[in-house]
Design goal:
Length: 285
């Protein structure tokens, strides 16, 4: 029995429209956020797809101490509130510490638990106690079945609903792989599954320093579309895309963040696959 995840007016789960979660990796200036929201909002309206704006106010897991981390919680939440009101779109952001959960829940419609923190009991419980839906990203070190424990912690604390996100599994050094059988296994736990298109293309810690810049995570951004198509065909309920007007200048994950053109293409292709699957299912019935 699959339990849907409700985020404001959006219902995520089997039998519902594919949901798009998109935004810059880390919140930057208003112009960047607005450019992303305008473009993604436009294509989702055209395709009649629900979408959620994503932006992090802090990126606590950085390769270098000198890597940009974001505007901080107060300024970041104000930026998210502005996007939410201006573009009439639900918003989501990371919660890194239990003490942040209540304040974040006042603005965010969906709380996101980062992959490296998905086993942290205090964090999961704090997010659950807000009563908001919680998106838990699967740790790169966990099996799909292990995510049932993370989900139950948040639910027992009072979470409104749960979604689980796949973002790749460690395969030796500086490499992530995606287990599409594992996507099916995770879906059978009973909660909607989201596929993180861009983080799945990372080569964690594999980047080199460039002149005047700290070491950053490397990636294979050209494979994002391939992974999105495969995951949509596998039956995920949502896809997560980090996108930026000018990826080389992005303050976080510049090696994997997608251009707005690329993000639009990914969304259109995923939508076409989802529609094709739905037509086959209707025909079979």
């Amino acid at each position: 029995m699959n339990t849907p995840c409700r985020v404001g007016p959006i219902v995520i789960g089997p039998g519902h429209d594919l949901v798009i979660i998109a935004g810059p990796c880390v919140l930057e200036d208003d112009a960047v956020q607005a450019a992303v929201a305008e473009r993604i909002g436009s294509v989702c309206r055209e395709l009649n797809l629900p979408w959620i704006f994503k932006g992090s106010f802090d990126k606590a897991n950085r390769t270098s101490l000198g890597s940009p981390r974001g505007p901080g919680m107060d300024q970041g939440l104000r930026a998210l509130a502005t996007i939410k009101d201006r573009f009439d779109v639900p918003v989501t952001t990371d919660v890194h510490e239990p003490e942040q959960a209540a304040a974040v829940a006042e603005v965010a419609d969906l709380l996101q638990v980062p992959a490296f923190l998905c086993r942290q009991t205090n964090l999961l419980a704090a997010c659950g106690r807000t009563g908001k839906p919680v998106n838990i990203k699967k740790g790169q070190f966990l099996s799909p079945a292990d995510m049932t424990h993370a989900a139950e912690k948040a639910l027992e604390a009072g979470a409104g609903d749960i979604m689980l996100t796949e973002r790749g599994t460690f395969f030796g050094y500086h490499r992530l792989v995606n287990d599409f059988i594992g996507l099916g296994d995770m879906a059978e736990l009973g909660w909607p599954v989201c596929f993180d298109v861009t983080h799945s293309t990372q080569l964690p810690g594999g980047g080199d320093a460039t002149a005047g810049h700290p070491v950053q995570t490397a990636g294979r951004p050209e494979r994002a579309g391939l992974l999105a198509r495969a995951a949509t065909a596998a039956g995920v309920d949502a896809i997560f895309i980090e996108t930026h007007p000018t990826p080389p200048t992005a303050r976080s994950d510049a090696a994997t963040v997608q251009s707005l053109d690329a993000a639009e293409q990914i969304i259109r292709q995923a939508h076409a696959i989802r529609c094709g699957l739905r037509n086959v299912e209707v025909g079979a019935s």
